[in-house]
UniProtKB/TrEMBL annotation, chains A, B:
Keywords: DNA-binding, Transcription, Transcription regulation
InterPro entries on file: HTH_LacI (IPR000843), LacI/GalR-like_sensor (IPR046335), Lambda_DNA-bd_dom_sf (IPR010982), Peripla_BP_I (IPR028082)
Superkingdom classification of source: Bacteria
Species per Swiss-Prot/TrEMBL record: Gordoniibacillus kamchatkensis
Protein name according to UniProt: LacI family transcriptional regulator
Residue ranges of domain HTH lacI-type in the record: 2-56
Amino acid sequence: MATRKEVAELAGVSEATVSRVFNGVGPLKEATRRKVLEAAQRLGYHPNAIAQSFALGRSGNVGVVLPHVPKVHLFSAYYFAEILSGIGEALRENGRDMLVLLRSPDEEPGYAQLFRTRKIDACIVLGARDVPQQLAALRELRQEGMPFCLVNQRYDGERFSVVDADHVQGSYEATKHLVELGYRRIAFMNGSPEYSNSRDRLLGYRRALAEAGLEPPPGGLLEGNYSRTSGLAAAVRVGELRSSGLEAVVCANDRMAIGLVQGLRERGVAAGQDIAVVGYDDSDAARLCDPPLTSVSVPFYEMGRTAALRLLAAAQQSGAQAAEPFAATLPTKLVVRSSAVRRGGM
Amino acid sequence: MATRKEVAELAGVSEATVSRVFNGVGPLKEATRRKVLEAAQRLGYHPNAIAQSFALGRSGNVGVVLPHVPKVHLFSAYYFAEILSGIGEALRENGRDMLVLLRSPDEEPGYAQLFRTRKIDACIVLGARDVPQQLAALRELRQEGMPFCLVNQRYDGERFSVVDADHVQGSYEATKHLVELGYRRIAFMNGSPEYSNSRDRLLGYRRALAEAGLEPPPGGLLEGNYSRTSGLAAAVRVGELRSSGLEAVVCANDRMAIGLVQGLRERGVAAGQDIAVVGYDDSDAARLCDPPLTSVSVPFYEMGRTAALRLLAAAQQSGAQAAEPFAATLPTKLVVRSSAVRRGGM
């Protein structure tokens, strides 16, 4: 591999000039620049990107933090896969690479360290939760002026950049749809309230019930962890509630809804016929499962793309503008299928 | 942020000693090392990872090259999602991060450049094809002794490290299963022969037919591109072949099989009843679709994990050992569901 010295000799310039060309610093004549680049190309000279990044103070990498749980096939979850696809597309368009950072929810997040050590220039945090440790790590990033963005998670009262979906509206429409189909006793199976998007969904559910003069039925606020198995486990409780008149369940994601449908089937209860079930996310599985799920479509791909594009734009600003956090809320949309049909039509 | 000088003063050592501690070079007393680390911690000193990587000659990042196609939600494909999950798990266990490199199949791959510029220390290439440009780029990596590994792709006659699945056996068992169910006229819908795993599947299909004294029916070798839409499009041809006696189709992945099932349904032909269809991959969709697909389970997650672990082990070797490529072939397994039932039982 050619050295800087050889390039300098062939181009008839000093080694410092070669460095200036590759680091993009200092005033340079266009002719000089071209001479150096031609010599570098002829000799197969490749400036060291790390040394170069060091000089420029950046790596060209955008970090994406994902919550690591052992044995969970994280990339296979529709939610993360779609957001990552959107981020990947936007980063590629902008010549950046994606550094995937799997961090356990139980370990010190240490986001700021990733910037200080210049592994990344900017950062998108997925699956963050509203717990003190995580909040402190994000506040540190904010205080140090390191560009980052949250997806699908807000922290009330904090000035963090966020790209979110309108989950209040999504959950409101799902619940209202059931009310319009004639259901009165409608339960809600949520994920952990440590996620702002869980709290948003609960809000939308309650709002739709209140508008119809209804309340959650006794024992009708269930909690899972967004996994299929937690939906499967909830089938026992839902089966019991049915005998006291429960007619429908809104689930906070498709995986829990699919688990619930499977668990009910094992107990001889047919979703779509004996009880109405609505999912959330409109994943591939919602279309494919039996019965196909009425669900709420969330533009995860667009959310990832928007987060990356807004973040890269923000990272190029400086001063007061750079300090101003951005926020975007993308619309959700109800998709009607056959897991919830008109009451009496059952 | 504290400087190296301040750490040196507090620890009572030279700045060079501080550097040696953080770069892990040279002989050092354990007591000295501890003094420096304590001083660094008290002062909140963070050595610059890029500068440090530069000194050590590594980034701590393992690259994963993925074929980029605009608008395709790559991470949402079961195939890539599972392999990435396995790679991610193994890298995390070893304290490495994953640099995702989306590269268009039409652009110069330039793998070697990623090493030369020290963006990555080792590299896993997914979705590689047997085309001259890609082969040349991989040969360059091999010649320069840069550690890399292919997943699910072999190049005959090349000494590249590969982790693969036994697709000859997988396809053989899928076809043999149909023969045992009483089918004689069995078509095969493959992906591009630019993938060695497509050629392997064809081999297994032909072997099972030959053992039963059968041949592919006329026009019965179809080609798609592993997408659902290519399966959907093939339904026209399969419909025509049915009128000349076609009884069953083995598909080289589930997505094409699902597209084919949907396309046949639009034409009034029920898979599982009017024609037998077998998929490949045993993705979530295979379980969920209607009818549930008989398919071939491929341990993609384990393949990703194995590739990362073997690669990291190989990258730590030197000399003749490091030059020796590794190879692993993981077993596949037929999973029987209801898209192909006993002939006559239809």
